[in-house]
Amino acid sequence: MRILKSGVIALALTGLVACTQSPTGRSQLQLFSSDEIAQLGAQSYSAIKEQEKVSRDPQLNQYVQCISNDLIAVLPSPWGQEQWEVTVFESDMVNAFALPGGKIGVYTGLIDLAETPDQLAAVIGHEIGHVIAQHSNERMSNQFAAGVGLQLGGLLIGQEMDSDKAALVMGVLGVGVQLGYILPYSRIHESESDELGLRYMAAAGYDPREAAELWRNMAKQGGQNPPEFLSTHPSPQTRIEALEKLAVEEMPTYRQAPKANCPKP
Q1: Which member of 111, 118, 130, 242 has the greatest number of CB atoms within 10 A?
Q2: What single-letter DSSP state applies at residue 116?
Q3: Cofactors per UniProt (predicted)?
């Protein structure tokens, strides 16, 4: 009976695997269609616009739209041909995001912190990188696969252990999955989006060296950070050092690109 159930589990998990490659060549698990993920992105975007105060400042909107347009113009197909919607949110929050389905949101707190258009382009490019690398699909797929794996594993555990022991083992498996699989991939997502963001900003005529400067500004404002091992983001210093190396690689592209012209209001 145990062998039969193990075989069923292995077959079920094998059937779930749908591997693709990210723009950097990394293998990914994607179980959902692009249309499904785009629909979720559009729904989330609408909800955020209802919850947050949308800025009506024409200069700020023009500034963010100008930078976004420059970045979109250099994106690979089909994202470069997509009609992206850009919204500025009036909030002190230092944040920006991009969602599947061509949605970009930038908070005025980030506009204040980003000292130059290049620094703001670094963040917007980074967020667009998450979309192009389909990190939302991958994260949902990883979580779904992990959840299914634990549930199927519980069928076996429940056959041979009492409820207390089964709960203990499931708890250990839960921690192992969270720390050993999902969180590390999230850190990979951040580093991969940094790489893609610098690639896009350099091609659009924004100085890639300014990405590290932005993170220095963020680090000055940050409080106590969790240990990097338990964080879904690289530590500020790790990120700054990686961005500096990536900037060197992208400088030839930047020097050959027409210089961007989106002055900060």
Answers
A1: 118
A2: S
A3: Zn(2+)
Is there a domain that residue 265 lies in?
Answer: no
pLDDT tier at 184 (50, 70, 90 boundaries)? Answer: low
How far is the C-alpha of 71 from the C-alpha of 75, rounded, in Å? 7
Please, which pLDDT band fits residue 137 given cuts at 50, 70 and 90?
A: confident
DSSP 65: H
Q: Is 259 or 161 the better-scoring residue by pLDDT?
A: 259
263 in a structural domain = no
Per DSSP (E only), the strands in 101-158 are: 103-107
Counting the structural domains of the chain, the total is 1
CA dihedral sign, ordered 5, 7, 13, 15? negative
For residue 19, what pLDDT is reported?
A: 72
Q: Is the dihedral of CA 224, 228, 234, 238 positive or negative?
A: positive
Residue 40 pLDDT grade (very low, low, confident, very high; cuts 50, 70, 90)? confident
The percentage of residues in the chain with a pLDDT greater than 90, rounded to a whole number, is: 49
Catalytic residue among 115, 127, 138, 228: 127
CA nearest neighbour of 94 among 265, 214, 245: 214
71-83 tens-digit pLDDT: 999 999 999 999 9
- Tell me whether residue 127 is one of the annotated catalytic residues: yes
- The closest alpha carbon to 31, from 14, 16, 9, belongs to 16
User: Strands, E, within the chain: which ranges?
Assistant: 19-21, 27-29, 85-89, 96-99, 103-107
d(CA 12, CA 152): 9
